[in-house]
Design brief:
Number of strands: 10
CATH topology of the largest domain: Lysozyme
Order of helices and strands: HEHHHHHHHHEEEHHEEHEHHEEHHE
Helix content: 40-55%
Largest sheet: 4 strands, antiparallel
Strand order of the largest sheet: 7-8-9-10
CATH architecture of the largest domain: Orthogonal Bundle
Radius of gyration: 30 Å
Number of helices: 16
Distance between the termini: 93 Å
Number of domains: 4
Strand content: 5-15%
């Protein structure tokens, strides 16, 4: 009886050990889609639905299915566009969920293989499929243009590999990646836990098999108050700022392929009609101002330092003294070799002020986060020209000392 117990005991132990090892292997190679940290809103009117066959849904929890549906429903317009492009190019529908697997439809996404945009297109793939990429523009971040390029690349990979699995894997990684894996394994898609990227392909195909495709009722409404405009000179937001009050962040959202705060020349940019017409009409004047700004013609080099002494009185602390003279607490401690912020009544503190040629007191402030001149000007409620008078121009200002006139 004891021997039988021991036999069953070790068999039971072996069974649970096997289950634990399988779970660890599955977790190791499971794709990281970060659905757990993703906020989502359920949309009962959305037409994306999962099939009712429970065995086919078993690899997804109920919570994951809800989140996936929410992501798809929040990107119905993008899915509509993908459907229209893929139907024209005869691309299998399973590939339409690649942006979900790669980036959660985030057009600002960057992959570990150097890809960018919602489709994770590599520089070479994007270039070979007609996308524009230079110092000011990267069309991989434009969802519609990158979708067209992705469809061409998928068609090429399907013709080359002649099977969906290898084409999908090559798209997610690269053809070289697929080639190197095939040197190690005779059949990549017989063992699910070969590689995390192989597992993404399995996930993609499984997901497509359990999602019911239905017609989307939503139609894209074009904004009537916006049009595409083309200018003949690169115009910096910094230069435009002093001519017209514009929501520059809206321009960046409408044109996600813009890499910097610059409207590039000879390239159609979606702008509010009023803004576009203004820029076309005033392009020459703005460009003249911009040349002066970039050449630091506004910058006044004539600043001098003035040393004064402050006698500590009752109620004085370094913060109050620093605010009075428009300097920082760290500067006062440095000028007076203070080891701590403790000061005493009657103590004399050396203060170094920055004075302009017009005897204006200049306030100096450390800028830690990178900001453009127009952002700094807006924050301090002054013009870019005034800012350029006190500071040498940089397109991005990071960890600098910003000078402004004291209020």
């Amino acid at each position: 009886m004891i021997q039988i117990y021991r036999v069953y005991k070790w068999q039971l132990f072996g069974f649970f050990f096997f289950i634990s090892i399988c779970t660890l292997i599955k977790a190791q190679y499971a794709p990281n889609y970060q659905f757990e940290n993703l906020d989502y809103i359920e949309n009962e009117e959305c037409n994306f639905k999962f099939f009712n066959t429970s065995s086919r849904k078993s690899f997804l929890s109920k919570k994951e299915r809800k989140k996936i549906k929410a992501i798809l429903c929040n990107n119905i317009e993008k899915n509509q566009f993908i459907d229209s492009v893929f139907s024209l190019n005869n691309i299998p529908w399973c590939f339409s969920k690649l942006p979900l697997i790669i980036s959660n439809y985030n057009h600002n996404h960057k992959t570990q293989y150097g890809g960018a945009g919602a489709w994770g297109l590599s520089y070479i793939s994007a270039l070979n499929n007609g996308l524009v990429m230079n110092s000011l523009i990267d069309e991989r971040y434009d969802f519609e243009k990158s979708t067209i390029a992705a469809s061409k690349e998928l068609k090429r990979l399907l013709n080359f590999y002649e099977n969906k699995e290898s084409a999908a894997l090559a798209f997610i990684t690269s053809p070289n990646y697929v080639h190197n894996l095939k040197l190690k394994y005779d059949d990549l898609f017989q063992i699910e836990a070969i590689d995390s990227n192989v597992n993404k392909v399995f996930y993609l195909l499984k997901l497509d098999s359990i999602l019911e495709r239905t017609a989307h009722k939503l139609t894209v409404e074009k904004q009537l108050d916006k049009s595409h405009f083309t200018i003949t000179t690169d115009l910096y937001f910094d230069a435009i700022f002093d001519f017209k009050e514009i929501n520059f962040y809206e321009i960046l959202i409408d044109n996600p392929f813009l890499l910097h705060h610059v409207i590039p020349k000879d390239y159609p940019i979606l702008l509010p009609n009023e803004v576009g017409a203004f820029l076309v009409e005033n392009e020459h004047e703005i460009s003249i101002f911009q040349d002066s700004l970039l050449s630091n013609f506004f910058y006044n080099h004539q600043f001098h330092k003035k040393t004064v002494y402050h006698t500590v009185g009752s109620g004085d602390v370094l913060g109050i003294i620093a605010e009075k003279y428009h300097v920082s607490v760290a500067d006062i401690m440095n000028w007076n070799n203070l080891k701590s912020t403790v000061i005493y009544i009657g103590q004399k503190l050396q203060i170094v002020e920055t004075i302009s040629t017009e005897n204006q007191q200049i306030q100096e402030k450390k800028i830690e986060d990178p900001k453009c001149f127009w952002e700094l000007a807006k924050e301090h409620q002054i013009s870019v020209k005034q800012l350029g008078y006190l500071n040498k121009y940089k397109s991005k200002n990071h960890k600098i000392t910003l000078r402004t006139t004291s209020p």
